[in-house]
Amino acid sequence: MLSKIAGTLVALLASSLTVHGFRSTGSNPTLNADAVVPDREHSIFSPYVDSTLQNKFWDYGGDAIVDTNRYVILTQERRNESGWLWSRLPIEMSDFEITTEFTIKGQSTATGGDGFAMWLTKERMQGGPIFGNRDRWNGLGIIFDTYPNSPHRGFFPQISAVKNNGQMSYDLGKDGEYQDMANCHMQLRRTPTDTRLRFTYVKDVYMELALQTQEWNKWTSCFRISPYDFTEPPYLGFSASTGDITDLHAIGSVWTNKLVYHSRTPADLENERLRAFAEDSGSGWWNKKPKDESRKQESATVFQMLKQLVLFFVWVVKWIVILAALGAAGYFGLKYYQKNKGPSTYKNRRMMA
C-alpha cells in the first residue's frame, strides 16, 4: 500500500515538473541543452507578493506598485514616473533563459514615453535617469526605447543591447546611437497579442533576444550575437520611466530557467557556435531575422505607420472643418449684426430731430 502511494506521489511530482517545464520553456524548441531546470529564485508571477506585500526573492520600488491580479506596474500613465523590480539574488548560472511577459500601453497613438529596460548588472536597486536605472552601470542592459529624442533612420520603438563597464555615460539625447552591441525595431504598443521577450544566454556560444508581438508563441529574433562576458554573477532587474509623454509599463511574469550542458569540450563549443550562426546571410549577423518573419514585421510596421498618418490626417481635417465653421458663423453673424444696426441708428436720429 505504501509503495503504491509513494509511486503515485512520484508520478504527480514528475507530472508537475513536466507541466512547469513546458509552460516556461516550450516556446524555444531550438535549445540543444541536455536539461532545462526552472529557477524559482529569478522567476515571479501573480500574485507577486505574500500577505506582508513582500516577495522572498524580489524587491520593487520607486513609483512601482503591485496589482496582484495582473502585473507589477513599473510606471503608471503619469508624467515623470520611474519604478523598478529587482531580484534579491544574483544569477549564479552560466547558461540560462529568461522569458518575460510585459505590457506597454497608453493613450498616445503616435509614440510612447519613454520605455523600459531589462538589466543584468553588478549593482541593483539604484534608480536614475536611464529608463529608471542609474547611468554608468556595470553589466548588460536590454533597452526598449519607445520615444525618439533625436531623428533616426529607423523607426521606433527601438530595442538595443548596451554593455557598460561603469565608465560609459549613456547618451540619452541620441537614444544611445552607436553605443549598442546590437539593435532591432519592432512594434511594442497596440499589438494584436500579448508581448513577451525571451533572452537566451549560452556562455561562450551566443546570446539571443527574441520577441512575441504579432501572434501567440510566434517568436521573431531581434538579435543573436556573441555573448557578453559577465565578470561576476549579475542581478536581474527591470525598470521604466515616463516623461512628458506617458505610458503604463508593467511586468506580467518572469520565468527563468537554468540550461544544463554536460561535458562540453572546446570542440563542442566551436561546433555549437557554428550551428548558432550557420544561417548568417552576410548582411548583418547581429540583426539577423528569418525572411518571412522580417517581412511580416515590416508589413505590420508599415500598416501601423499608415494608420497613424490616416488618423493624423482625419484629425487635421476635423479641426479645419470646425475652424471653418466657426469662422463662417462669425463672419455671417457680423454681417447680420451690421445690417440690422444701420437702420435702427438712422431711425433714432430722425426721431430726435
Automatic annotation (TrEMBL):
Gene Ontology CC entries for this record: COPII-coated ER to Golgi transport vesicle; endoplasmic reticulum membrane; endoplasmic reticulum-Golgi intermediate compartment; Golgi membrane
Top-level taxonomic group: Eukaryota
Residues passing through the membrane, by range: 309-334
Signal sequence annotation: 1-21
Gene3D superfamilies xref list: 2.60.120.200
A single BP term in Gene Ontology: endoplasmic reticulum to Golgi vesicle-mediated transport
Keyword Membrane: yes
Subcellular location: Membrane
Any one GO molecular function term: D-mannose binding
A matching Pfam family: Lectin_leg-like
Domain L-type lectin-like: 36-259
Membrane topology: Single-pass type I membrane protein
UniProt keyword annotation of Acetylation present: no
Protein's recorded name: L-type lectin-like domain-containing protein
Taxonomic source organism: Malassezia caprae
